[in-house]
Amino acid sequence: MPNSNPACRPPSDTSCTNDGINWAEIYPEICLSAGPESIPLTVVGLNAWDGCLSEYCYILQCSANRWLLERSLSQPPWTVDVWFASGGTIPNLVFPDFTTAAGEC
């Protein structure tokens, strides 16, 4: 039976703010996991990382004070999927079908 004591559960704060903390300096590499595949994401700006694997490119960034994951096709028809984090804290975020962790993949 899982422990129902809130103090024993891991923290979850999917919000982010650009309040002077540059998480990209603290975590220069983020590993995005999608099932058996892992995609290395590298810093591209203030609180933003990106990386590509096969036909998809991914961007993890702070947007509207929430962590956002965007996936786009790297070739036409250029479709884009967007998810907001549903749990965890930076660098260990949870998105539908994806998770993140600090460091190399």
Short characterization:
The protein is mainly beta and 105 residues long.
Task: Describe this entry's structure for a reader.
The protein has 105 residues and is mainly β. It is built from 1 helix and 9 strands; from the N terminus they run αβββββββββ. The protein has one helix at 23-26; strands at 29-34, 37-45, 48-53, 56-63, 66-73, 80-84, 87-89, 92-95, 98-102. It has a 9-stranded antiparallel sheet with strand order 6-5-4-3-2-1-9-8-7. A hairpin with a 2-residue loop joins strand 8 (92-95) and strand 9 (98-102). The longest helix has 4 residues, at 23-26. It is globular. Mean pLDDT is 85; it is low at 1-11.
Write the layout of secondary structure elements.
Blueprint lengths: L22 H4 L2 E6 L2 E9 L2 E6 L2 E8 L2 E8 L6 E5 L2 E3 L2 E4 L2 E5 L3
Antiparallel strand pairs: 1-2, 1-9, 2-3, 3-4, 4-5, 5-6, 7-8, 8-9
Q: Tell me the β content.
A: over 45%
Based on helices, strands and strand pairing, what is the structural class? mainly beta
| Mean pLDDT across every amino acid position | 85
Shape: globular
Which strands sit side by side, in order, in the main sheet? Answer: 6-5-4-3-2-1-9-8-7
Largest sheet: 9 strands, antiparallel
Number of helices: 1
Unreliable segments (pLDDT under 50, ≥5 consecutive)? 1-11
| Count of individual beta strands | 9
Structural Rg: 14 Å
| Secondary-structure element string | HEEEEEEEEE
Spatial gap, N to C terminus: 32 Å
Percent of residues in helical segments?
under 10%
